[in-house]
Amino acid sequence: MTIPYEEYPGGGQPLHFAHANGYPPTAYRSLLEMLSRHYHVVAMQARPLWPDSSPNDLQDWSVLAEDLSDFLEEHRLTTLIGVGHSMGATTTLRLALDQPDRFTALVLIDPVLFPPWIIKQWELIYRLGLGTILHPLIRIAKKRRRKFQSRQAMFDNYRQKSVFKWLSNESLNDYVEALACPNAEGDFELCYSPEWEAQIYLTGTRAIDLEIWGHLPDLKPPVLIIRGASTTTFWRRTASMVKRYLPGATICSIPDATHLVPLERPTKVYETILEFMDNNSSDRTHH
């Protein structure tokens, strides 16, 4: 199968953007179009967006890193900048640890990375079969409304939700456009299924993630981590741990932003990435 992807052609070095769980690549249109002023941006659609893919095939996120590796090989992207949000950030980080020479720089936006004690705790919960009961986001995903009469109806519904309070109308509209697929009945339904979203949450923190902490000091490319100041995912204590393992990493917190920081503050995220690249790269093409 040819892995589907989005492309934002631009000059300069290739840059791959890996999206979050439940947020297809085009949800990030504002950020990716800005990045394409300086880079040739490609964004693979992760497994949950592939036709006929089954959530039951995913037991941990290592397969997502393998998918990304296959995609980059398919497009002969041997050296590039790796950018990712949430699930996509963790996937990119895992691949960078497995393939040290693949990336010239890493930008991890609110990665799903928890301290080792949380990982061990969640592994036990997973093995006991309690994940779907105890993970609040799984319950939310499974109850998610699947169909809307129109994209506007979906937009109006989402505009009322507190999780999207810091998204501009433009960003929220990009998210709706990315997520709403027309169906045979003339309605719109979610392109990214609640079953896949729930399985991603369920398998997102497994014992295999302890390997990330074990190998973090060996990471070769310069690393920028961007977090929303109000995130509930990449905690301050996790950021402090990363700095101990990886003293050279740059970690930035963006105010008035949550885990959805690249959708809430796309211009600020873009400017932060550009400043980091200016400080860490001599060959970035300017336009």
Features:
single chain, 287 residues, alpha/beta, Rossmann fold, 3-stranded antiparallel sheet
How would you spell out the order of helices and strands?
Answer: EEHEHEHEHHHEHHEEHHEHEHH
Total count of strands: 10
CATH topology title: Rossmann fold
Helix/strand-derived category reads alpha/beta
Fourth CATH level, the homologous superfamily: Alpha/Beta hydrolase fold, catalytic domain
Poorly predicted ranges: 283-287
Shape annotation: globular
Termini gap:
36 Å
Radius of gyration: 18 Å
The neighbouring-strand order within the major sheet is 1-3-2-4-5-9-10
User: What is the domain total for the residues?
Assistant: 1
Level-1 CATH class name: Alpha Beta
What can you tell me about this protein's structure?
Residues 283-287 have low confidence and may be disordered. The protein has helices at residues 29-35, 62-74, 87-98, 116-127, 131-134, 136-142, 151-159, 169-179, 194-203, 210-215, 236-245, 261-264, 266-280, and strands at 5-8, 14-18, 40-44, 80-85, 103-109, 147-148, 180-182, 188-190, 223-228, 250-254. It has 13 helices and 10 strands. It has a single domain (5-280), classed as Alpha/Beta hydrolase fold, catalytic domain (Rossmann fold, 3-Layer(aba) Sandwich), CATH 3.40.50.1820. The strands form 2 sheets. A 7-stranded mixed beta sheet has the order 1-3-2-4-5-9-10, with helices on both faces. The chain has a 3-stranded antiparallel beta sheet with strand order 6-8-7. Helix 1 runs parallel beside helix 13 and helix 7 (151-159) packs across helix 8 (169-179). Helix 11 (236-245) links the parallel strand 9 and strand 10. With 287 residues, it is an alpha/beta fold.
